[in-house]
Amino acid sequence: DIQLTQSPSFLSASVGDRVTITCRASQGISNYLAWGITSSLAWYQQKPGKAPKLLIYGTSTLQSGVPSRFSGSGSGTDFTLTISSLQPEDFATYYCQQLSDYPLTFGPGTKVDIK
Amino acid sequence: QLQLQESGPGLVKPSETLSLTCTVSGGSINSISYYWGWIRQPPGKGLEWIGNIYFSGSTYYNPSLKSRLTISVDTSRNQFSLNLSSVTAADTALYYCARLSEDCSGGFCQLNYFDSWGQGTLVTVSS
Fold it and tell me: Which of B115, B117, B119 sits opposite A63 (nearest CB)?
């Protein structure tokens, strides 16, 4: 199984801060194809009492309707989610997920709280 | 707009079978680019993938649950279902159904994301 770790597990930040969350896979999840490198790594945001919401897929593709302050990067085993300027509605828990191989796995989550 | 809705008992006795159904509306479950999945979240904890099904009936299960798990699809009702047998308190969780996207190109298929989720249904295992 591909294990995912996230750091930090908890983050306290202020509105306007730049926030970076790291997701590390126990093995590479990138596919090196003729037309380029692709990684089945997605990021979700979950607020209390709500279902997870897709933010980013394919490492860096922003889901429709997601603000551009969210961005993703990485390859191989190391991936990051960045929020360029934290907004009040961004306080939530963030999960990475690998879809490269079964069983599909999620990271343990990073809770972003108000400083 | 695609909507998914979980339904089923909120309380199940230990050793019995947990049965949930997900009803898909606003779109067809007979989509070649999508699987349909179940994910669960124990109270206060993280997300665990349970399994996926394609409209044809092909399934992928989490090995940790495989011996107790059955996922099925009813295309005529636009529904898919989960049965988890011999439940214990460890199966107490919020259960979500969701749509899983797949892209196939040049003979290579890649799963992409869960983009539409149900609101979740809490299932408690207790006598």
Answer: B115
